[in-house]
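Obj: model holo form, ligand = zinc ion.
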Amino acid sequence: MQWENLTSYDFETAVKTCEKVAILTIGVIESHASHLPLGTDMFTAHHIACEAAKKEPIIVFPQYPYSINHETAHLPGGVVIKRDVAFALLENICDEMHRNGIEKIILLSGHGGNRYFLPLFVQTLPEKSKPYTVYVANLPIKQEDVEMIEHKEYGHAGELETSMILHIHKDLVKMDQIPPKTFSNQNRNAPVAKAGGYSQVDWYAMYPHMYVGNAHKATAEKGEQIFEANIRYLIKLIQEVKADQIAPALIEEFNQRQRQPKSPDFWTEE
Ligand SMILES: [Zn+2]
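Output (holo structure tokens):
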């Protein structure tokens, strides 16, 4: 059920029905080549959550496009949220969810550029002894789930993502504006990357046009299959999160112990 569609009166019942679990889907507003909408990542993640919620009740927070996409600032229409604001706003939202009765929050990103942001956000929650549990969703998508994708490079704005938007927002895809040629990894960072180095222009060094591969073979049917796999994995994760009593108990224990650090007895404790 979608948070913004509930009445205030019905909200408390919804929290009980969903076993105090909610999901926040996170995207960005950024360039997706010349043919996909700026809100692509926000749309895909939110659709996965809303469809999963029909099978496994969970409160789905409204569409949220405020995360980390500094690598898009050179192209029109991108909205870059300052680093400190992105962290503070996400913390604010999680606090508000908890104030409204939510004890477990799942973060589902539709944007690859959040691969460091969300784990770092969760990793640093003990700093403020947050009493609620936050899980980052890393859905275990396998090769067989995307084998219908024909082009071997299919990331940002490519065949996979274009197929997904064709399935949910066909009217927003400009098929006649797909770039005429394939855009492959420019690998400008390869020497340093192979030696284990990462810099703030890694993505720009690889894909400066924010377009990966070739989207001409994208279809709504392929998109539907990809969504189905994501929805299936998310339902499983929601079920596991609802059943999880270990993380909440360990968070409580850890928050207490970190106030007075004390060495364990290595000889008697297990
Ligand atoms: Zn995207």
